[in-house]
Specification:
about 425 residues, mainly alpha, elongated, Methane Monooxygenase Hydroxylase, Chain G, domain 1, three-stranded antiparallel β-sheet
Length: about 425
């Protein structure tokens, strides 16, 4: 009786073994024929035998399941998640095959992500970029891409989770860049080292060099803080930026990001204070001087605003917004004089005062025009905003001929740039 039982068990085990091999071969055949729907059905049937599989068969099962779900890149995001989960269970046998599959998956996911990005389907692109990272968890730049593209479609909570993960991973995004100057265009281009060296050797590029790229950390911290602000959690926003500043107190970008948070919170005093702190560290930064000028202008501190905008133009003569605002300061002063003129009476003394104020107003308007004329002399391709402002000043001064000349230039530009 005992002998018969042993024989029966042996037959039973043999049958199970045959069934396992048969089911797994069915999956393999379907995958080989790119029939992934059939492969998924077969893998579901094979899953019922998983408990009696040996370790090698289990490894093969999980490997094939990953293949079937990935479907050569045609699987859904949900299927890809399941495929990664399955491949994570591969141990011992099929590890090398799994590594190759994962690399192919990463490449395919990046291709799909780039394709979705080009079509401006940022939500789908973000998911593909994240999955490309999850495949190997080595290329953290893909995780960064996932967060950045999620921001584009206002998937803030998802982006926040990814940014927080990047912070925990210590991601900075700093990479070594290889560059050279294109002799034909005169422009510096960043290339991979091999291509750069070939171009330099061939003579098409000169002045080769290498450097480290800027850190992405300030941008990440800024976006984290802005997400907190959009969620109404201003305290967390300020904590995030202050923690980053404590870690890197000399980083001007972080100071500016903190300043921008206060601007979002409509605390212009703190904004200005931080911008001025940044200026101590970076005194030739035209954007910082411009921001101080705008705050001073809003507060009615005309002289301080004037100095800021003049400083901007001394650093960057092509900064058109600074020229417009500097011109506006003179126009606003002139408008105040016009109000005073309108409040005068009809006496001879008022008439005399009127003429004095008229000269003062015209001088202020002319000063506003001179700012723009000087800007245009340094920037022949000045935009239509500059020209329109100058035309309006000439009209206010009664110089219709000059106004018509400017109007012709605007028309020649097609109404503006």
């Amino acid at each position: 009786m005992k002998k018969q039982l042993i024989i029966a068990l042996a037959v039973s085990i043999s049958a199970f073994s045959f069934a396992q091999k048969k089911e797994l071969k069915t999956v393999e055949k379907a995958i080989k024929n790119n029939n992934f729907a059939e492969a998924k059905v077969a893998i579901t049937q094979a899953e019922g035998l998983l408990s009696v599989m040996d370790e090698k068969s289990k490894a093969k099962f999980y490997y094939l399941k990953g293949q079937a779900l990935y479907a050569n890149g045609k699987g859904s995001i949900a299927d890809i998640d399941l495929a990664l989960e399955s491949l994570g269970n591969v141990n011992g046998a099929y590890e090398s095959e799994t590594a190759i599959l994962k690399q192919n998956m990463a490449n395919g996911l990046l291709t799909n992500g780039n394709s979705a990005y080009e079509k401006k389907d940022y939500s789908k692109a973000s998911n593909y970029f994240e999955k490309a990272y999850r495949v190997s968890q080595k290329d953290t730049v893909y995780l960064y891409y996932a967060a950045a593209t999620a921001i584009n479609v206002k998937e803030y909570d998802r982006a926040l989770g990814i940014y927080e993960e990047l912070k925990e991973l210590g991601y900075t995004g700093i990479v070594k860049e290889y560059f050279a100057t294109d002799k034909e265009s005169g422009k510096e281009v960043v290339l991979d080292k091999g291509t750069r060296d070939i171009f330099v050797k061939g003579g098409s590029h000169i002045n080769p060099g290498e450097r480290f790229s800027d850190s992405k950390k300030p941008e990440i911290v800024k976006n984290v803080a802005l997400i907190y602000i959009s969620n109404g959690d201003n305290e967390k926003a300020l904590t995030a930026i202050k923690d980053a500043r404590a870690e890197n107190p000399e980083n001007v970008d972080l100071i500016v990001n903190e300043a921008n948070i206060y601007l979002q919170l409509k605390d212009e005093t703190k904004f200005k204070e931080l911008i001025e702190e940044a200026l101590v560290k970076d005194p030739e930064n035209a954007i910082l001087h411009y921001n101080v000028g705008v705050v001073n202008m809003k507060k009615g501190d005309v002289e301080s605003a004037k100095k800021s905008f003049e400083k901007v133009l001394s650093i960057d003569p092509a900064y058109s917004d600074a020229a417009l605002n500097l011109s506006n300061l003179y126009i606003e002063k002139g408008n105040v004089v016009i109000e005073d003129m309108g409040n005068l009476g009809m006496s001879k003394a008022d008439d005399a005062k009127y003429e004095t104020l008229k000269v003062e107003k015209n001088n202020l308007f002319q000063n506003g025009a001179d700012v723009l004329i000087d800007f245009m002399s340094k920037n022949p391709d000045a935009n239509s905003d500059i020209l329109t402002q100058l035309k309006n000043i000439y009209l206010a001064l009664g110089e219709s001929g000059k106004a018509k000349d400017i109007e012709a230039k605007i028309d020649a530009m097609g109404g503006g740039q």
